[in-house]
Amino acid sequence: MSKYWNSRVKNISPYVPGEQPRDRKFIKLNTNENPYPPSPKVIEAIQEADNERLRLYPDPQCTALRDAVARRYAVKSEQVFAGNGSDEILAFAFAAFFESNNGSKADSILFPDITYSFYPVYADLWDIPYRTIPVKEDFSINTADYKIPSGGAVFPNPNAPTGIPIPLSDVLSLAEYLEKQNKVLLVDEAYAAYGAESAVPFINKHSNILTVHTLSKSASLAGLRGGFAIGNSELIEGLCRVRDSFNSYTVDRLALAGAEAAVLDAAYYDGINRRVIATRERVTKTLRGRGFTVLPSAANFIFIKAPIEKTEPCISGADLMAALRERGLLVRHFNRNRIADYLRVSMGTDEEMDAFLEACVAIINSIGKTR
After folding, report:
1. Which of 23, 75, 89, 314 has minimal CB crowding within 10 Å?
2. Is the pTM here over 0.90, yes or no?
């Protein structure tokens, strides 16, 4: 800990991203990347933008990208905000809509106890008080638990790392409750393309809903860093005020070109993401047939636990992750209460998932032979 750090830096616990290996080749099933390449139209658009105009600043308003999102989602351009992936937009949203700590418990924002682990990081960074709401025994989110005095709420739909979706009717009911309190509901729709119902069609009915989207997952652009938010124009202006307070040019020219092309090529991405969903359902069925616990997922990943032997899994989550890594497969483990025996497994290609399934069977069989 450096003597030069201020108290804010000393007291935060930064988010830890999934491993990006450099020393050997792995089958990467640990960071929820799309196993299929981006649209050829995206590559073409980036190549066309790679010219002498890179000497000029990009459009600070991201106009073309926002117009593309507006056309795709049947909203107005002024209801769209563009940024460097959903993480940046979420950070802006925490700063724009949630009050910093003033000692009032009623200003604490709410999010699930098992969810995207960046949320407490943002809250700590902006000095925002928060409360975690326990998910149910089956790991689903009960939005009725959020209908209490608060500073607002945020959760992914589907949730991460569980993959479990929240019924749209429950999301809208909570939005209505929070709207009466003049509080914002952030709905993180990073994985919505894989089976959850989007709240975008209801942003005009509920002015406090802000949906946040990324191009890293369903658009195969994790390396480009593009994302957008959709909501009431007043919410969008709030995001702009935060952005323009430290950097008006957050999205570069190449990213803008590629993101716009991706948003407009819905047909291509609908096709590859149907393949991801089909793979997810096949892998889920196979693992359950082998005795694994697999939570119901509407994302491009699954949350699994090894077969139960008597009352405990036959191998812990940490040990199963290590055994898979030895066999050249990376998955994600969260050493946290209630989920320490689970692994989050991103969907790869069918060939990659076959290798994963074979490794799981071999590991479980080897345990049986040593007992």
Report:
1. 23
2. yes
